[in-house]
TrEMBL record:
The keyword Transmembrane helix applies. This is Lipoprotein. Keywords: Membrane, Transmembrane, Transmembrane helix. It comes from marine sediment metagenome. The chain crosses the membrane at residues 6-24, 81-102.
Length: 105
């Protein structure tokens, strides 16, 4: 019985450790920021409609969207790190349980 329990705890240890590594790696993934392509020859011309710069709304959108992406990247990274810590703690608990099963012999 104890050998079966040892194998079960070993599987849980490996599983939780693998999930911790996955989330740790995922915490480093970031969505790249939105960049506006420059218009060809834009340094020589300007496009205006009724005196308003046509590119201003797009630049405002890009600024706001990039701000959102920064917050999302930070939040997502933090969530993945917290999940990784939880899985590493679960892996340590499973490892500890595995050794307790060994001591019962």
């Amino acid at each position: 019985m104890s050998k079966k329990m040892f194998v079960i705890w070993l599987i849980f240890t490996i599983l939780f450790f693998s999930l911790g590594c996955f989330h740790l790696k995922a915490s480093k993934n970031k969505i790249s920021l939105f960049q506006i392509s420059e218009r060809p020859l834009s340094e020589y011309t300007s496009v205006k409609i009724s005196g308003a710069d046509v590119d201003k709304p797009l630049k405002d959108f890009a600024r706001d969207f990039n701000s959102y992406l920064d917050r999302y990247n930070e939040s997502s990274g933090r969530q993945n790190i917290i999940a990784a810590i939880g899985y590493f703690l679960a892996s340590a608990a499973a490892l500890f349980s595995m050794f307790l099963v060994l001591r019962q012999k």
